[in-house]
Amino acid sequence: MRHLQRPDGRIAYELHNPETTAPLIVCIPGMGDVRATYRHLAPALSAAGYRVAVMDLRGHGDSDISFTDYSTVATAHDAVTLIEELGGGPALVVGNSLGGTAAAWAAAVRPDLVGGLVLIAAFLRGEGMSGVQEASMRAMLLRPWGPSFVSRYLAGLFKGGKAADHADHLAAIRAHLAPPERYRAIRRLVENAFHPVPARLDEVVAPALVVMGELDSDWPDPAEEAAWMAERLGARRLMLAESGHYPQAQQAEAVAEAVLDFARTDDGAPGMPPPRA
């Protein structure tokens, strides 16, 4: 494990293939999740020749809880700073859920550093919640029942196939929700996510791959949402059967194959996807 120093604290991350100068992939988890969500995808990508950095969100996993800003924009700038820390871009940025929103923002503000996007079950519309919905959700996040609610909610998003170590991953999520001081930090990020920032999609010029599980219950129609994202960004689209909100953990082999096909050069070497037409 390594740490990226930021003004108010440190972001924990791990780096696969640190000894190489191969193209860089940065992976961002979703809210409430930990970097181990990429525990099967990251090794597959590094085995193909990439350097792969997998980060924790602010207040999550092994990152510090001392931050004053837990916004999605702050997460985007953490990813951008990590790319700079590791030698600069272009990098391929993979984001799941809220991490996908942050990835798109990073691509908009630093097109020189983001050479491609893989948006896995990403939230890009930025509507947020209604006042009644928000008030209800805030009440459900309160202790003592809040950590249990978040844990059950996240567990329910794993519809379809599951990795052999799925139970261990859920146990790790429950463990990192348990300490009151850490849960307070996580809650601040979760509450911020009820007001997603516009992803500045008009400014995104990086080529993109949209990945969505057919059983993702975060949308009434996952296929329709994926089609909208793909059309909006001129992106490739991959729908995965027997997968919910976490294809990178539930169908890691299929996601790895799609990412490698998206990013590899004409001669099959690790690289970045070609620019959008």
TrEMBL record:
Keyword Protein transport appears in the UniProt entry: no
Lineage of source species: Bacteria, Bacillati, Actinomycetota, Actinomycetes, Streptosporangiales
InterPro entries per the UniProt record, alphabetical: AB_hydrolase_1, AB_hydrolase_fold, Epox_hydrolase-like
Transmembrane segments: none
GO molecular function: tropinesterase activity
Pfam families cross-referenced by the UniProt entry: Abhydrolase_1
Protein name: Tropinesterase
Record keywords: Hydrolase
Source organism: Streptomonospora litoralis
SUPFAM superfamilies: alpha/beta-Hydrolases (SSF53474)
Documented EC number(s): 3.1.1.10
PANTHER family given in the database record: ALPHA/BETA-HYDROLASES SUPERFAMILY PROTEIN (PTHR46438), ALPHA_BETA-HYDROLASES SUPERFAMILY PROTEIN (PTHR46438:SF2)
Location of the AB hydrolase-1 domain: 23-142
